[in-house]
Amino acid sequence: MANPEPRPRHSTLLRGIAITLLALIVLVGLAVLITWLVVRPKRIEYIVEDGSIHNFNLTNNHLNATFNFAIRSYNPNSRVSIYYDSIEASVQYEDQTLAFNVVDPFFQPHGNVTRLDVKLTAQYVPLSGSKSKDISHERSSGGIEIIVLLKARIRFRVGAWKSKDRSLIIWCPHVLVRYSRSNNFARTYCDTEL
C-alpha cells in the first residue's frame, strides 16, 4: 500500500486564510441583514404644499421676483433620525436657475413632519429671449410651471450611531405656482436621490 503524499504547508495555510475570509464575509453579511431588519429604513417623503410668486417684474429679459414655498418633509422611520447640515434651495425654469437661497440646518426626529418655509428671490436674472417669452405667456394664464430643487448634506442617526454625511437631492418637478396666494394650489410630490 502506497503512502499518501503529505500536503505542502503553504496550501494548508491558504485554505485556512480562505476559510477565515469566507467566514468574515458571512458574518459581515449577517450583521448588515440583522441591522437592516431591525432598522427597516423607509424613504423620506417631500411635498410642496404651497407656493406663490410675488413682486414679479420681467423687463428687458431680466426677471425680478420672490418665490415662496411651503415644503413638507415626513420622516416615516421609527428608529432613524436625520441631521440636515446644509440645504441649498433653487427655482428652475426649464434648464435655467431663476432664484437660489440657503435654508437653515435642522434636525428631524424619527416619525416627524417638518414644514420648511422657503423664500427665494430672483434679482435682475437675465433670461434668453425665448425663455422670457415663455414666462410672459405662462404669466398670462395666471401661473408658471417651475422646478423646485433642494440639495442637502445629511447624516442619519440610529440610537447613538451617526452616519457619515451624504448628499440628498430633492427634485420637485411641475410645480405650478400662481402669481398671488391661492387656495387651489396643487400639491406636488417630490423625488429624492441619495
From TrEMBL:
Q: What subcellular locations does the record give?
A: Membrane
Where do the TM regions start and end?
12-39
Pfam families referenced in this protein's UniProt entry, alphabetically: LEA_2
Where on the tree of life does the source sit, at the highest rank?
Eukaryota
**GO (cellular component) term, any one:** plasmodesma
Q: Which residues form the Late embryogenesis abundant protein LEA-2 subgroup domain?
A: 71-164
Q: Which GO terms describe its biological process?
A: defense response to other organism
Predominant subcellular localization, coarse grouping: membrane
Q: How does it sit in the membrane?
A: Single-pass membrane protein
Sorted keywords for this record are: Membrane, Transmembrane, Transmembrane helix
Q: Output this protein's name.
A: Late embryogenesis abundant protein LEA-2 subgroup domain-containing protein
**Species this chain originates from:** Fagus sylvatica
